[in-house]
Amino acid sequence: MTRSQAVDPNVCGVTAVIAVIDGKWKTSLLWLLEAGPWRPAELRRRLPGLSEKVLTQALREMESDGLVHREVYDVLPLKTVYSLTDFGRRLSVALGPVSDLGHERLDRMAAERAGRVEQAGQAGRVERSIS
């Protein structure tokens, strides 16, 4: 999916929204910012593995797409804070049911794995009792 799809008027609305949150870190950033404003260093601490470069790029894209607001305070050292815009909050709310479906899927997969492990354990006990 390309970012250009986010502004193409001839694309499906779902595709346009997915284009703005596409990427490894944007949904996690959206989720964190839902709780309130954050400074970039705080966001990095909350998301291990996220580099400063990728964080900056993701936040700039999210700002450009109208999801986040960047506030720079004129103090020394400079203080920058990111928060969700109204559109970002609406998107976050809209993604809530999608998140619920994702958790249901993860729970189902975990239960299926547990069932396979249990079946394998029972099969091993049966084989040992036959020999």
Provide structural commentary.
- With 131 residues, this protein is mainly alpha-helical.
- 63% of the residues lie in helices and 9% in strands.
- The chain is built from five helices and two strands.
- The protein starts with 12 loop residues before the first helix and ends with a helix.
- The model has no long low-confidence stretch (mean pLDDT 89).
Largest sheet: 2 strands, antiparallel
Instruction: Please work out how many helical segments DSSP would assign.
Output: 5
Low-confidence runs: none
Tell me the Rg in angstroms: 21 Å
Encode the helix/strand succession as letters: HHHHEEH
Strand content: 5-15%
* Average pLDDT figure: 89
Helix percent reads 55-70%
Strand neighbour order, sheet with most strands = 1-2
